[in-house]
Structure formats: structure tokens, C-alpha cells
Amino acid sequence: MVAGGAMETLADRLAVIEARIEAACRRAGRARESVTLIGVSKTFPVEAVREALAAGIRVLGENRVQEAAEKIAQLGHSEPGCRPEWHLIGHLQSNKARWAVELFDRIHSIDSVKLAEKVDAACQETGKRMPVFIEINLGGEASKAGVPEDEAPALCHRVSELEHLELCGLMTVPPFLDDPEDVRPFFRRLSRLRDHLLALGVVGPAFRDLSMGMSHDFETAIEEGATFVRVGTALFGSRG
Ligand SMILES: *Cc1c(COP(=O)(O)O)cnc(C)c1O
After folding, report:
1. What is the pLDDT of residue 44?
2. Whether pTM exceeds 0.85
């Protein structure tokens, strides 16, 4: 391990993140395989994505369809068997649903019936089945996407009826708070909401994932049950 930021490579940073994920899993009595690390490559160039793939990252997260399209086109399919998964983690406008369906393997940001229906229709046209998350706005922040908790049952029920979508769980971007301990209650609420929706019977058995936790709080998220953590700056460096 190299001391000091300047000489540190992406592979070094990945090794540190990996060790922290493993330790968090151990603390929580969970298997390492129960957590998927998403490398959030938004704003970073395709060279950084190549470096991440070489270091062993297999799932990439982008928050804009256009930016992902450019990177996927530049990467091509030059490494058979090594094609990464691409996850859309940012807000999706319904007029880009078709494009998103063509590019992505999972969508974390379904937040309305209208959007879900657009994605479902695009899946039907392209012969795809799309795993999706419902995004929940737990902090009630107007600046953030997602539905409030009390709208989750109706939206989840409707989405689980759509034939070409596989409703796999809930996603959230909690308020940014310096101390990850202050974020813990939000992660816990998302986990409880998942359990509540399962108990209500408005979702199917595939509904179990929690997409939560970013660079500064992914360990806390894992302790509270995250199955997908979305890590950008801790892996790729500062977005400047
Ligand atoms: C940018 C982003 C992340 C990654 O954030 P970092 O703090 O860089 O790890 C995670 N999730 C979403 C939805 C994002 O937009």
C-alpha cells in the first residue's frame, strides 16, 4: 500500500475498499458475496473505467444515459467474457427509457408509475427483462429524486405487476451527513421498509435488495443490510 494520495493507484484504492467491505460483512455476520460493489464512474473518462475493469471491478454505475452510452461505445466488446454490468443509478427521464433499456443491466431509480410503464414497454419492444429498484426519498429533500415512504406500497404493487420488470428492491440516497452514524437511521428505515413491503404482500419473493451506501458511509450501509453499495470517489478519486 502506498502512503499518501498522489502515488496511489485505483487498484490500491480497490484493495482498501475490498478490505473494508469484508470487515463490515464480518461485523454484520454476513457473507462477502451478499454485497455487490458498484464502481460509480460518472464524470470519469473511459480510461478510468478500463483501469477499474483491469483491477477487477465488474459492475459500473452511471447517473446519465448519454454519458454511459459514450463510455460503452468506446469500450466496445473487446474483452469477451469480461463485459461489465452497467447500472443506472441516477434519475431517468421517461423519454430516455428506451435508450436506458438498451444500455443498462439494472435500473436503480424508478420513481413513478409512468416511468415504470415506459421502461416496461421498452423491455417488451427489445425482448428484455429488467431488474429495477424503487428509489425512496427518506429525507424528504426536494432536491432529491425518489418517492416518499408512504407512497412505496402503491408504487411497488403496480411495478410488480409489470411483466417485463423484475422488482428487486429499494434504493435510497440519504441526506449527506458527515458522520456515517448519523446516516445509519436512514439505512435502517430502508431495510424496515423492505421488510414491511414483503409482509404486506405487495411485492414478489425476488424483492430483497437494498441499494444504499456511498463512499463515506458504505460500511454502515452494509451493517444495516445493503446488498449493493455505490462507491465513486473512494475508488476513482475526487471528482474535482
Ligand atoms: C455519485 C453517486 C454515488 C457515488 O458517490 P460517491 O460519494 O462518489 O461514492 C452513489 N450513488 C448515486 C446515486 C450517485 O449519484
Report:
1. 97
2. yes
DSSP codes, 44-83: S-HHHHHHHHHHT--EEEES-HHHHHHHHHHHTT-STT-P
Specify the residue with its C-alpha closest to ligand 1, atom 10. Answer: 230
Q: In degrees, to the nearest 5, what angle opens at C-alpha 148 toward C-alphas 161 and 92?
A: 65
Q: What gap in Å lies between CA 157 and CA 38, rounded to an integer? A: 27
Pocket test for ligand 1, best of 230, 231, 235, 236 (most atoms within 8 A of CB): 230
**Helix, strand, coil percent values for the chain (each to nearest 5):** 45, 15, 35
Q: How far is the CA of 19 from the centre of ligand 1 (A)?
A: 20
CA of 221 to the centre of ligand 1 (A): 13
Which residue's CA is minimally distant from atom 12 of ligand 1?
89
